[in-house]
Amino acid sequence: MAHSMINTRLLLRFLRTFILWSPGALVALLWLFPLYWMLITSVKPDRLILTGIDLIPTEVTWDHYRTVVADTPVGRWFTNSIVTSVSVVAGSLVLGSLTGFALARMHFPGRTAIFWLLISSLMIPPEMGIVPLFIGVLRLDIQDSYLSLIVPPLASVFPVYLYRQFFLSFPRELEDAAAMDGCSRFGTFLRVALPLAKPATLAGAILIFTGNWNSFLWPLLVAFKSEWKTLPVGMAVYTRLDIQGTATQSGYGEAMAAVAIVALPTLIFFLVLQRYFIEGVTQVGIKG
Length: 288
Hints:
This protein is an all-alpha fold and 288 residues long. It has helices at 2-42, 46-49, 63-71, 74-105, 111-120, 130-140, 146-150, 158-168, 172-180, 185-196, 198-213, 217-222, 231-243, 252-283. It has 14 helices and no strands.
């Protein structure tokens, strides 16, 4: 009798779990299907790309990737994207952590007004600031350089908000203990608060890196020469020229290979750090 009751409970638990997770698994499969289709198309021979729907390719070729690498300076574009994204991540986190700590732990007139002013700027579409930024880049004559690709994206409110919310939950006892040990305000931030903000730092790094890696409009405007294009911009130009808007078989394999080269680094980066990302998001408090 007891064994039967245990089996019934296990069966009910399994059914509840199945009903709860089945819709999410279905949505995940639907979301992953375009990515899977892109990958299998990128390794199909040209003659098989438009012949039908093959979930498992009967033939695999790497010629499309070889063609993309041979026809484009993909190494230079990849380097530009890496340098730009990593620099923006580092600069944004440094500025965001300092500003967020000041807004959360320091008391000065207008602190709340400054925070809400920064938050309200998020309602302004980024495209509205493109023209004055572009004019400034032209007047400073820094187009086709890392300065034009890195400096403007540093003015991001997101890391300020992220760190400010985290530091609001920072135990004041730790701050008082650091002060008793002779730490200055900056020493407390550097030696105590910032190391404890690792979850917020990792979550912010993932989001900022992904956003800047996939950035398109600003790098498109300030990179006039081919050698200064980032990977998404360069590959977009390449695929447009390659397919030429025709419905022929030629070009689609190279286009899918080019898109895969752009997408895979961020996907791998997120999959490797997803545990830290989830931990960071759950630990960042939502305090006002």
